[in-house]
Amino acid sequence: MQNQWDVQLSFDEDGVHTVCEASLIGARAPGLRGHGESTRSVDDRPLARIGEELAAARALEDLSHRLRAQADGEIADEGHRPGYLIY
User: Fold this and answer.
1) Which of 15, 29, 60, 84 is such that its CA lies 20 to 30 A from the CA of 51?
2) What's the number of CA atoms in the CB half-sphere (13 Å) around residue 76?
């Protein structure tokens, strides 16, 4: 069986704040999203790329934690299912 998930990063910026949403995309992807933000310091040069990199890293980290929590929950659920006899 082959399966493929893609990660889509969407950004919203206002020159000071950058917000990133990371989404898992695919036919069998779990449909999770992660959120990340960054804020430019007044002393920093206005480089949108750096804000995007930080916000993306934080969104991917959040997505990773959500994915792990979902997998951990599903593993725990498997342990609580009743056993069935196979005749």
Assistant:
1) 29
2) 6
Query: Is this model's pTM higher than 0.85 or not?
Result: no
pLDDT at 37: 98
Buried b (16+ CB within 10 A) or exposed e, 12-43: eeeeeebbbbbbbeeeeeeebebebebebeee
pLDDT digit string, tens, across residues 22-68: 999 999 999 999 999 999 988 877 777 889 999 999 999 999 999 99
Nearest residue to 39 via CA among 48, 28, 30, 29: 48
Read off the DSSP letter of residue 87.
-
Sequence-distant (≥ 6) Cβ neighbours of residue 65 within 8 angstroms: 34
Q: Is 62 in contact with 22 (CB distance < 8 Å)? A: yes
Q: Which of 53, 19, 16 lies closest to 37 in space, CA to CA?
A: 19
